[in-house]
Amino acid sequence: MAVNTYAGAWITEGAPFYARNLRPGTGGVAAGIAAEPVMAVLARGMDTSGASNRDGNLVVRIGRVYWVALDREAYEQQVTTWSRVRALGDLVLPPTPARC
Q1: Is 69 exposed, middle or buried (0-12, 13-18, 19+ CB in 10 A)?
Q2: Does residue 22 sit within a domain?
Q3: DSSP E strands, the chain
Q4: d(Cα 49, Cα 13) in Å, to the nearest integer?
Q5: Half-sphere exposure of residue 12, counting CA atoms within 13 Å on the CB side?
Q6: Which domain of life is it from (predicted)?
Q7: To which H or E segment does residue 43 belong?
Q8: What domain range is 24 assigned to?
Q9: pTM of the predicted structure, to 2 decimals
Q10: pLDDT at 43
Q11: Is there a domain that residue 98 lies in?
Q12: Are 52 and 85 in contact (CB under 8 A)?
């Protein structure tokens, strides 16, 4: 199920390891930066996932989509969001053979 792929990439796979080294978020707008927390998405599209550190930023790849978390606050918001999505997916999506 796609929900588990996305949620897993943020919650249980490599992202938590790399996220511990992110700088904390500022909780507001910083000079020269549009808004905080900051998340950039580069779309490319497949269903495997992985995480890495690039120039001090967390990069989570899901298929060919690359998510770049610039600070811990951005990462934590993704974990919260994908945890909720995963829980809702279990409630509203029909069972698949892997979940039966």
Answers
A1: buried
A2: yes
A3: 39-42, 49-54, 57-62, 65-69
A4: 8
A5: 7
A6: Bacteria
A7: none
A8: 2-92
A9: 0.64
A10: 45
A11: no
A12: no
Distance CA 59, CA 79 (A): 14
What domain count does the chain have?
A: 1
Percent of the chain with pLDDT over 70: 71
Q: Please state the rounded mean pLDDT for residues 65-81.
A: 88
97 is a domain residue = no
Write out the two tokens for 15: 């992202």
Omega before residue 24 within 30° of 0, cis: no
Q: Which of 50, 46, 51 is nearest to 63 (CA)?
A: 46
Q: Kindly state the tokens that stand for 17.
A: 């390891």
Contact of 30 with 83, CB cutoff 8 Å: no
CA distance 87 to 89: 5
Q: Each residue of 12-49: pLDDT tens digit? A: 878 888 888 888 876 654 545 454 455 555 545 456 88
Task: State residue 3's pLDDT score.
Answer: 72
- Whether the per-residue pLDDT at 64 is higher than 90: the answer is no
Structure-model confidence comparison of residues 94 and 26, the more confident one: 94
